[in-house]
Amino acid sequence: MTDTLPRQTGAAEDAPPSTAASSRVDLGDLRVVHTRHWFRWSIGIVVLFVVAQFAWSLVTNENYEWDVFAHYFLSEPVLQGVGITLALTVISASIGFFLGTVLALARLSKSPLLSSAAWLFIWFFRSVPLVVQIIVWYNLGYLYPTLGLGTPFTTDFWIVEFPTVQLISAFAAAILGLSLNQAAYSAEIIRGGLVSVDQGQLEAAAALGIPPRRRLTRIILPQAMRSIIPNATNEVIGLVKGASVVFVIAIPEVFYAVQVIYNRNSRVIPLLLVAVVWYTIITTVLSIAQYYIERHYARGTVRVLPPTPLQRARHWAGVQWARLGDSETGPAPLVGVDAPVVAKATFQGSSNDAKNSGGAGA
Predict the structure, then answer these.
(1) What are the helix (H) ranges across 9-73?
(2) Is residue 257 helix, strand or coil?
(3) Residues sharing a CB contact under 8 Å with residue 193, sequence separation 6 or more, in sequence order
(4) 160 SS3 class
(5) Which of 95, 124, 117 is nearest to 183 (CA)?
(6) What is the crossing angle of helices 221-242 and 170-195, to 10°?
(7) Is 161 helix (H, G, I), strand (E, B) or coil?
(8) In sequence order, which residues have a C-beta less than 8 Å from that of residue 95 and are 6 or more positions away?
(9) What Cα–Cα distance (Å) separates residue 307 from each residue in 298, 337, 341?
(10) Distance set, CA 37 to CA 34, 40, 48, 60, 360 (Å)
């Protein structure tokens, strides 16, 4: 005796086709709708209007006296003033950051004497205004008519002796004031960069037996530079403009030079614009240098460095040229930005995984 169930062939044949295949949608047929940032566009239009209005006033307002500006922009006194400003900046920044590095290391020293002396130096020169420091150095001969070497705690300079007025000129007083003031501020910048590095880096280097000097120069300082550079560049830019205070001791830097000129011809605004444009040029050059220095020291923190503005401009030009149809191949992708770089890395990782899995299976 056999029991057989009835075959439900009719139900299977009459079943509707699966909806999985029919519900597939080609994503390429979908229309991309971009998000409309109305607030962002409104603010951008307002800013563009303000900039255009200001640019229009620069061209149409005759009180700017652009002919006077063009006449004095490359004049000999102004160029000499720019040269003195750059000389003051370079010399003072070099001395200041060198002393600042020594002071920062002294602050971090385990010696209480060195640490206290460095703290007192930083405290004093950050407390006294820069213009006061420069005037004191310029009038140091009033306190000490002569300087030299000889018997300690006496004025018997039997080794060498110099009149203070001849030894400390106006330029030397400006360098002393700017350098020592800069050293006090740069010491804290460098110290902050050094302490920002993970303590484990120093402990690991010490465990490997690396000498202290090499630990600092090869491990700690390169990592600290990424946080030191932005603040250090701000200090240098501030030093460029802060050098204008040396006009109190009659050093003909760029601001003093334009002051002398507009006191003679009463053309205040165009001469001040000369100084503003020169300061802007110097600041722009320093900002570009800051970008590339930061990019250099970012190699240890990012896998691929971001493209430079020149590389971005070349890539944009290549894209526009390819859109014209004159190029058979498109522009090369920007390294570190475009998705194909990531896709390539992913593909390589997948192939390596496949090789490893294949080897394991074998």
Answers:
(1) 9-14, 19-22, 38-60, 66-73
(2) helix
(3) 224, 225, 227, 228, 231
(4) strand
(5) 95
(6) 150
(7) strand
(8) 175, 179, 182, 183
(9) 12, 8, 13
(10) 9, 5, 16, 34, 52
Paired with 60 in beta bridges are: none
The single-letter code of the amino acid at 75 is S
Q: Give this prediction's pTM.
A: 0.74
Cα–Cα separations (whole angstroms), residue 166 to 6, 171, 173, 226: 123, 11, 11, 42
CA distance 207 to 229: 29
Q: Rounded to whole angstroms, how far apart are CA atoms 324 and 266?
A: 55
> Which residue is it, tokens 């605004």?
269
Record the tokens describing residue 193, joined without a space.
């960069």
Distance CA 289, CA 349 (A): 37
pLDDT digits (tens, 9 = 90+) for 11-70: 445 555 555 555 677 777 778 787 888 999 999 999 999 999 999 999 898 889 999 999
Q: How far is CA 147 from CA 141, 164, 174, 340, in A?
A: 9, 6, 18, 69
